[in-house]
Amino acid sequence: MDDRVREHAAVLVDWSARIDAGDDVVVRVGEGAHDLGVAVAEALGERDANMLACYDSPELERAYLRAHGEEFPSDPAFELALYERADSVLSLRGTRNTSERADVPEGREQAYSRARQGIREARLSTDWVSTVHPTRAMAQQAGMSYAAYRDFVYDAVLRDWEGLAAEMRRLKTTLDGASEVRLRKDEDSTDLTMWVDDRTAVNSTASVADDSHNLPSGEVFTAPADTAGQVVFDVPMTVRGQRLEGVRLVFKDGVVVDWEAEAGGEVLRAILETDGGAKRLGELGVGMNRGIDRPTGQVLFDEKMAGTVHLALGRAYDACLPNGETGNDSAVHVDLITDMDREGTTLEVDGTVVQRDGTFRWEEGFPGA
Amino acid sequence: MDDRVREHAAVLVDWSARIDAGDDVVVRVGEGAHDLGVAVAEALGERDANMLACYDSPELERAYLRAHGEEFPSDPAFELALYERADSVLSLRGTRNTSERADVPEGREQAYSRARQGIREARLSTDWVSTVHPTRAMAQQAGMSYAAYRDFVYDAVLRDWEGLAAEMRRLKTTLDGASEVRLRKDEDSTDLTMWVDDRTAVNSTASVADDSHNLPSGEVFTAPADTAGQVVFDVPMTVRGQRLEGVRLVFKDGVVVDWEAEAGGEVLRAILETDGGAKRLGELGVGMNRGIDRPTGQVLFDEKMAGTVHLALGRAYDACLPNGETGNDSAVHVDLITDMDREGTTLEVDGTVVQRDGTFRWEEGFPGA
Known about the structure:
Two copies of one chain form a homodimer. By secondary structure, chain A is α+β, with helices and mostly antiparallel strands. Chain A has helices at residues 3-16, 34-46, 58-67, 77-85, 106-115, 117-124, 136-141, 146-157, 161-176, 265-272, 299-302, and strands at residues 24-30, 50-56, 88-93, 129-132, 180-184, 191-195, 202-204, 214-215, 219-222, 226-233, 237-239, 242-244, 247-252, 255-260, 281-287, 308-314, 333-339, 346-349, 352-356, 359-360. In chain A, strands 14-13-10-6-5-18-19-20 form an eight-stranded antiparallel β-sheet, with no helix packed on it. A five-stranded parallel β-sheet of chain A has the order 2-1-3-4-8. In chain A, helix 1 (3-16) packs across helix 2 (34-46) and helix 4 runs parallel beside helix 6. The N and C termini of chain A lie far apart (45 Å). The relative contact order of chain A is 0.11. The model of chain A has no long low-confidence stretch (mean pLDDT 95).
């Protein structure tokens, strides 16, 4: 076994999920995640935790869903009881075919998901963590060789998380006290101002201690209250199976008033027309994971990439809002990414340049310090 | 997928487990049983049952148990709750290495098992069924090619179970009213009489409807109250990892008074010396599965082989005993098999030959009818 699999398991169990002796832990082992499953089992044994292994198989689910009738009973008691009593749920994703569910009727999938809302809520109320074991299928989706993809995943996962968390607290402190955040790239493309008064930034440190549930992670995000100006997203995204490229949005009074896309315009139009909230920003996120050095079309990695900023159309996260305030509401939450790691690019907070050309002001090599 | 995998799933779900719409079904998918898992998922979907897939992995368990401390908490609540609420548990065994647990300290394994007695009881109080998906490792253990082993397993599993169950009821009726069961082979080897007054025969039809929980199955068994004479077991067995061959037992007043073995004598001695009940018979079973045509060293198959009788030293099953009566008690239950499919061999019940040379009296070709 690649040593990095064991290191991954240790980060997952200790840093991310904070497993203690006697914890009741459900491990959801993906079809292609057997090796990580073995390493996690060993780590849980070493920590004297209790383990139940579930099998997270798209092939089983596809066969089951295609054969099942249209109606699903709500929250079957046996599965609900399991998750209600679990302390942690560790999802080891690792598919062998990212298209395995392609021929499940969409309505079936949605009906199944709707019927299981209580189970989902029970799972999300545990110390859950979702992570990824690199598979050939995922390497293929990223357009990378298997060896290079494994390097990519482990570079993203095996970080100095404590050091990164400290750096993130620095940015969070800056954002929490701020009013105005401004993104600027060369004059023709991007000059966008977002107002974040009274909003709270969240540190995605890949640890349940910070209410951050994905490994890898590495971003600081908040929810803009208002937005004005223009922004170009130059990192391609795959949204609803379609490639989105060269998206330009123009905001006035918080709302998208003009837009264009070099590719994927129809998908973008559908998103913007979903509801009123889909034309407003729900999230401003700053990628801080230096282990992620290229976009792969997998948003959970791409949006964490150091030297990028992502903005999401649609729903805002409650954790960013003042008590009692409701943020932007929408049925969608679609992240779009812009590359900050280019000459002439700045992220300013209340007039101070916090990041220039992809380098934070507290980093060595900050230009024009 | 081999069509027989789908047929296997249908037999398991319909004949064996009697799954109905809305049943809460735990499917325990063995490491090497993925394909059967997919077929079972499809069958459960078709019947509108609810499914939770668990991962039954010797590699995960080995890693967990080796790393864990000596003490295990009793019946972790999350897993207990799952099995307490499940209607059925389908175990799809299919190991990729029958020796995977060889380096788990024995004490660890026992402590783990002891701590989980409540979970085990909860599982056994569902409509559980255990079956086998053929793997290369199991073919190897049976000394067979993978292709031949698959044929062997499916011949044993894909039976006319209703027809066989009717035939078994016939033998059960005969045994239930009987006093004396006598096994005879050529004079030098076997002439054994067992008394079964007031005992009840059980039909192992591979269906929860008959309280029979293994697929394949196919035997009728009862519990002798007394035994006298001599018997030779000419089908080799693997017991505690050792090969037992050519075992001869002599009974007087129900107790083994003399014994020998061509191979495995030390194991047999250890078994006989376990406790008082280990020298008495706990079971007389008649194999009736004509799909099983050779011994493979896997007792769950071997003892069901048509044309064989097996006798177990040790513990009797309660289902065979009159209400309130305790049968033979022992810490062991070791099955030994004798081949009835040879010339000059008879199974007599109260003086009537029920089987001669491996053929029942109701079968075509019964010799000397």
